[in-house]
Amino acid sequence: MLLIDCPWCGPRSEREFRCGGESHIVRPETPDAVDDAAWADYLFYRHNTKGVSFERWLHRFGCGRWFNVARATTDHRLAAVYGMTDPRPELEDGR
Amino acid sequence: MAEIVAPRTSEIGVGIGKVRLLADDVETRLGAALGLQVPAAGRRTSNGALSCIRQGPAEWLLVGEQDLVCAALDRVAERFSDDVCLAVDMSDGAVVTNLVGARAVERLAAYCDLDLDPTAFGIDHATRTRFGDVSVTLARLADGDSYWLIGDQSHAPYIDRLLDHGAPTR
Amino acid sequence: MSGTRVAGGVAIDRSHRLDFRWAGKQYRGFAGDTLASALLADGVRLFGRSFKYHRPRGLIAAGLDEPNAIVQIERGAATIPNLKAPYIELYDQLDAQPVNAWPSLGFDLMAVNGLFKRFIPAAFYYKTFMWPNWLLFEPLIRKAAGLGRAPQERDPDLYSQTSAHCDVLVVGGGIAGLAAALAAGRRGERVILATGGALWGGRLAGSDQLVEGQPATDWIAHTLAELDTLPNVLRRNRMLATGHYDQGLVALCERMTDHLPIDARIGPRQRLWHVRAGQVILATGAFERPLVFANNDLPGVMLAGAATAYLHRYGVLVGQNIVVATNNDSGWHAAMSLAQGGARIAAIVDARPSPATSLLAAAEALDITVRCGTAPEKAVGGKQVRAVDVARLDAASRLTGRTERLVCDTLLMSGGWNPAVHLHSQAGGALRLDPAQHSFMPAALPGSPSIGAAAGDFAIKTSLAAARGTEFVPVSTPIRPLWSLARTAEPDPLAWVDFQNDVTAADVALAARENFRSVEHLKRYTTLGMASDQGKTSNVNGIGILSQFLGRPMEAIGTTRFRPPYDPTTIGVFAGHRIGDGLAPRRRLALDAWHVAAGAKLEEYGGWMRPVAYLQEGETEAQAVAREVIAVRTRVGLFEASPLGKIEVKGPDAARFLDRIYVNTISTLKDGRCRYGVMLDENGTIFDDGVVTRLADDHFLVGTTSGHASAIAEILEEWLQCEWVDLRVLVQDVTTCWAVLTVAGPKARDVLQTLEGTIDWSASAFPHMQHRAGLIAGMNARVARVSFSGELSYEVSVPWRQADRLGERLTAAGAVHGLTPFGIEALMTMRIEKGFLHVGSETDGTTQPQDVGFAAVLANKKSDFVGRRSTRRPDSLRGDRRQLVGVAVDGPLPVEPGAHVVTPGREDAIGSEGWITSSAWSPTIGAPVALAMVNGGAARMGETVKIWDLGTWRKGRIVPPCRYDPDGSRLNG
């Protein structure tokens, strides 16, 4: 069970949060203009990294805010916590 | 039935107000409307009659007598009438449980993952957190020894059930 | 010859005698005894019969690594199977029974299995008992297998949980753990110290070995006393760490009452702790390895360290004439301790050719026979050991030459020590093989150091230094590894590795021969390590034997994955309060008491207890429902709709936002108007439906299905925070602030008009699908004229605590009109008559808006919204998708929802045309009504169909969904 450092509330138990899956998924600006393959990609295709996963998390039982987390899928180390609309951070050596 | 050692009172109908704002210079203006200093993240402030708890970056809970809370909500709506403002009377939607005494922490720790040590959650600390499987606002009150546990009124029987489950008895 | 009680025993209180039962006989012990120590003291040797072959078995260990003495305690609802006798604290009137033996331990008929051992080795069930059908044999095999009986009644005990935080969690109450806790405590850190057993001091409990100049017992007592003066230190015994998770989280199971007499127990039986620690210090000790040789499972063959433990802790000498077989120094230490305690040590047999001269001298001083370079070949005896045959070892550690028979009543074995690395590994710590100890040691793990025996350090001085924070390298005398003792390369078929699952050294070789060469395959193929002791005395021996057999180094083979729980942990403690009504918050309506008084039968719908129907004197449920429907259709009814979701959405961009959320266009809604809206997920699936009301230009009230409000509010926030961050909108769920009473029926207006208030109820002033706010009988009210029943209907919302008052007023006003309370079943019947959608009944995970009559709405919406693109996939555009239709069923009874709809003539074909989604008896039209989702249904009006209804073929006709008032004149009245 993770200890997650909510940007607003500080470190809290994972039980207060909900994971929203992979982050930085871009919703097509004009969905009508994209083909079925591109729309399926947006809906379903996700990375499955052995390494750092960039994810959205919601502090559901706390401040109610969404934010981003960089989590190592091999050992659950949380490498970074950053704002919902911030870009993916540069991490040293993927650790 | 053995007596449960963790005195508490639960009330429905305590004045509870909810304020959400999208505006500039919020702290000063909100403070002026409420008549108290607006709290920082994870804190409660009070002017004796009205308390304010910061639940999120732009979200506040007001607690006090219902008339005072409603009046405060009106003042907030007025002051922020040119901004985006939701100032809602939630008095009928909430239950406030007052937990008192040394055993209170033990009861809270059974259902809540917060670090409740006074050095981590001191007087006037207040936050939304998880209690069993429901969301509550928890505040340590000024005497240091008692707490507000504020939840949805429809969860009152569930909260009571948890507070009684496995509680130490005489 | 067997065990006796002697002097000493730090755990027991000789002034306090306890009575208990074992295998139907009365026994006595002392407070502080375990079931094992008390029985040993009384000369009991036979504790069980093995799992498969029903071989007689006795204790080998003194703790939770015990694989043989598996017992069941108490009876009825209180019975608990699968407990290890050394881990059961004795209490007055304890009733314990052996398992897996009938009619008795001494005379077990199933021992005949042992005669067929050749035919039922490991994994026999993959190769035999298959023809003609393995299911014929499975029940017999299952009945013959299993230790203990599962309770047949509900667990009567209460369990609780708690959360705790500290700077340092010390797991393990031996010398190292005590020192670490004291050091941290003295530094002012918040410390939690936990040990799984009742005793403090670990392997040195009750020992007079010197620790920093004091006898161990004194050092332990002084340390405990000082710990108790520190308010920042919490110490608990009977608290076993069961799992080590991420970021310093450790789960521990505290046994609160298991050690007390049954009638003295109050409160929760066990409590699960979730401790979040800044640092987790693992002082979890080490487990001794058995030696693997023929008949090493005879009662009386035990681990050397266990014998010492029984002496020091409980004052029990395990035997009268003891031989010690060892490959390391600790076996000698055990022999000396036992000799000091009054035991006769017949011989020490050391596999090493040259043990330390100090050891040899000590043995000589006590006149103990010594054999070096020698190891046991076979234990001799029937139901207990009476001798051991030993032989010399050649350079390849194979037995060779003459055997010598040593008479004994007890054989103590020590094959080395395995640090308890379970918690270290669970948290991701790596292991390395120590070349001197031939054991797996913990490699460095940031945030969780291992100290003492858990780190392979068996020396007091260095353990204490590590506990206090000094770096060190453990130094130890090399052992002589003996994985399996035999004369040839073939392991002995009667040399036991996993005692509880009856796995032999030959089984390990069998697995390797059958190409199950990885350690994970070895485990599952042979079941080695899969019993309730989780391989604590067998895993490493198994890896060693496999290593020898394959010629592969142990570190290359590795260990199996360590997973929580560390020791079997009762399921109840993981449930805690989440039982019965504590499993999910169960909510009650504002007028709950009134509904019950009016005869309501309540059931749970979406987490709320709601009236199914109001049963009057002598009525069946069906009759009540029919009566209620007729009352609403002909007069007026009252329904509580409080669980309907109500979400305030406010801001200059509110309308734009809602346009992106709903299939329908919301921005064109005028103030005071309502619109029925459907919400999709991005996959185009219908997710929720409800009525949206515009209160003002920038202010909307979003209605959701009952019980769905907080989920929808969360979705709205998600879009605003993650995707459309520039929209200026605020969202607030206000569902439980407002109680909602629905007044429905042709007389609804008449009833409401008699209440004093500010709302104009007349048809022209308050048309259908509109909203008014005002005062009703002095109460703040919001009224929506919307209908799910199809009659003239008003949903009246007042602040929750004023529901009683509104209810009273309405009941009084409605009496003259025959106002009738109606429940969910009546409402569902009426909406089915009207062909109104119910999300979750007509819709499933594939249903899109065009399937249920919203094709036009979809086509008319010009701007993008959530899920729109997904309704334009090829599959979404198929003409033969399942579509919402009505089915006129040939009566008299309604069909079951889920019944498949089939074209006549194709009753035997595979597949169907769809299924019934909702069904009811309609008192309004006097026939069964149903809704269904049928392939291409919209184009099949009038078609005859067959319906497979719970084993009978029924006939029906596809009709439009709405069977009552299709032009809506009653709605618009």
Characterization of the model:
Chain B: It holds the Pfam family SoxG. Chain B: This is Sarcosine oxidase subunit gamma. Chain B: InterPro entries: SoxG, TrmE/GcvT-like. Chain A: One of its GO terms (molecular function) is sarcosine oxidase activity. With 95 residues, chain A is mainly beta. Chain A is 9% helix and 35% strand. Chain A has one helix and six strands. In chain A, the strands form two sheets. In chain A, strands 3-4-5-6 form a four-stranded antiparallel sheet, with no helix packed on it. In chain A, strands 1-2 form a two-stranded antiparallel ribbon. Chain A starts with a strand and ends in a 12-residue tail after the last strand. In chain B, a hairpin with a 2-residue loop joins strand 8 and strand 9. Mean pLDDT of chain B is 92; it is low at 1-5. Chain B has two domains: 13-92, Heterotetrameric sarcosine oxidase (Alpha-Beta Plaits), CATH 3.30.70; 93-163, Probable tRNA modification gtpase trme, domain 1 (Gyrase A, domain 2, 2-Layer Sandwich), CATH 3.30.1360. In chain B, helix 1 runs antiparallel to helix 2. By secondary structure, chain C is an alpha+beta fold. Chain C has a six-stranded mixed sheet with strand order 13-10-9-16-15-14. Chain C has a six-stranded mixed sheet with strand order 42-43-44-41-35-45. In chain C, strand 30 and strand 31 form a beta hairpin. The longest helix of chain C has 15 residues, at 709-723. The chains are: A mainly beta (95), B alpha+beta (170), C alpha+beta (973). The interface between A and B is medium-sized, with 13 and 13 residues.
Give short descriptive properties of this protein.
heterotrimer; B: 170 residues; alpha+beta; Alpha-Beta Plaits; Gyrase A, domain 2; 5-stranded antiparallel beta sheet; 4 helices; globular; C: 973 residues; FAD/NAD(P)-binding domain; Arc Repressor Mutant, subunit A; 6-stranded mixed beta sheet; 22 helices; 29% strand; elongated; Sarcosine oxidase subunit alpha family protein (chain C); BFD-like_2Fe2S-bd_dom_sf (chain C); GcvT_C (chain C); sarcosine oxidase activity (chain C)
Summed up, what is this model?
By secondary structure, chain A is mostly beta strands. Chain A is built from one helix and six strands, in the order E-E-E-H-E-E-E. The mean pLDDT of chain A is 94.
